Amino acid sequence: MEEAFRGLIDFVREHQAWAAPVVLALAFGESLAFISLLIPAWGALVAIGALVGASGISFWPVWIAGAVGAALGDWLSYWFGYRYKNNVAQIWPLSKFPGLLTRGEDFVQKWGVPSIFIGRFFGPLRASVPLAAGIFEMPYWSFQIANVLSAFVWSAVLLLFGDALSVGATWLVRSI
């Protein structure tokens, strides 16, 4: 997996025009209930954030692409939970990790709408909270507002963290 992401980072470095579409796809996969369990892409997003700072790729389109991808992934997960309710637990890979959906359900029950915002920043919860919100029929617009706002914050945090790492590494190299 690491090798595949390294190849993707190299691709973005060489073909900067593809940075936003690649980030959109990675953020979508990272936020989609089933895919994010199998392919954690946050590290690649941080690495692309480092490229943004180091190579002159424009931050704004990449940031917006990341937010749109993340919001679409959570929206689709919400829809899937809303549509298939309790049958979701029997679908692989969630059937292999029964506690994951239960944790997401407990989290949504306890925190309500803020769980969408909070859950986006915590690995396994990122995959299960939107699904649980759909299963429990969280009001659609309440979900979407939290979903979109958190997607913009999450995308900025990952990309800017990568940029900060890039700046820090450059400073360290220059001072040695």
UniProtKB/TrEMBL annotation:
Task: Tell me the superkingdom of the source.
Answer: Bacteria
Q: Where found?
A: Cell membrane
The record's Pfam families line, in alphabetical order, gives: VTT_dom
Domain (VTT) spans 39-163
* InterPro entries for this protein: DedA-like, VTT_dom
The residues that cross the membrane are 59-80, 151-173
Q: Where's it mainly located? A: membrane
Family to which this protein belongs:
Belongs to the DedA family.
Instruction: Report what the protein is called.
Output: DedA family protein
